Amino acid sequence: MNNSDSTKIFISLKLIPQRRDGTFFPFVHFQEACYIFLQKLYPLFQNSKNPEDIHPLLGEILLILSADTEKDYLHALDLFSSCRQILELCNEICRQADWNFSLDLAIAADAGRAEKLIIPGSGPFPDAVAWTGIHEERASRISHAMEKGVHKDTLITHSFYKHLPEKAKEKYATLYYLHHICCYAE
Predict the structure, then answer these.
(1) Each residue's pLDDT tens digit, 125-179
(2) What is the C-alpha to C-alpha distance for residues 116 and 64, in angstroms, rounded to an integer?
(3) Does 59 map to a domain?
(4) Does the residue 62 lie in any domain?
(5) How far apart are CA 182 and CA 185, in angstroms?
(6) What's the total number of domains in the chain?
(7) Domain of 160, in residue numbers
(8) 14-65 pLDDT per residue, tens
(9) Which of 173-181's residues contact partners 24+ apart within 8 Å by CB, and which partners?
């Protein structure tokens, strides 16, 4: 790890299956729906210098983006609406496939200093990637708390909010405290 800390944007995209009817039926196609979402997300980054890492997890996708300029934060806000469009496409695919669920999406973003750690692989195991700092975990915790549907579907932390231009800050005027973390919503 080098000693030059840099600021990163951490975005947690939490995919939440919602039953279409009252029957109990396991979400056997949920991972397939997550894969479709991820497959449609990748092209958004093809011509961008912004992405640094993507971690697809069980029902959650963690994005790590560079945050060198104010423009990077505005790009992240644009990414939120692009993710909503991808969600609509995925739900149309779920409906056409006659799957028993649709998807909701909780988006949480945090920003702060972090460095990439690469843990060398051993034997059949590949290298593992981790990030220093608390911001990846904070974004993930917030999106998981949003899964209950009590909060808005997009929350940004104060650490992210303070880097936005005034016009963008005006959109995020509703204040929440979630897990003792100051957050803003539209």
Answers:
(1) 999 888 988 999 999 999 998 887 767 789 999 999 999 999 999 999 888 888 7
(2) 10
(3) yes
(4) yes
(5) 11
(6) 1
(7) 6-185
(8) 999 988 877 766 678 899 999 999 999 999 988 777 889 999 988 999 999 9
(9) 176/151, 176/152, 178/142, 178/145, 178/146, 178/151, 179/138, 179/141, 179/142, 179/145, 181/138, 181/141, 181/142, 181/157
Q: Is residue 103 part of a domain?
A: yes
Nearest to 136 by CA among 159, 112, 155, 118: 112
- Cα–Cα dist 69/55, whole Å: 23
Residue 161 in tokens? 């909010």
The pair phi, psi for residue 30, each rounded to 5°, is: -60, -45
**pLDDT of the residue at 1:** 38
Residue 140 and residue 146: Cα distance in Å, rounded? 10
Q: Render pLDDT for 77-119 as a digit per residue (tens, 0 to 9).
A: 999 999 999 999 999 999 999 888 899 999 999 999 999 999 9
Identify the pLDDT of residue 25: 66
Give me the residue label for tokens 């991808």: 86
pTM: 0.90
Is 1 within the bounds of a domain?
Answer: no
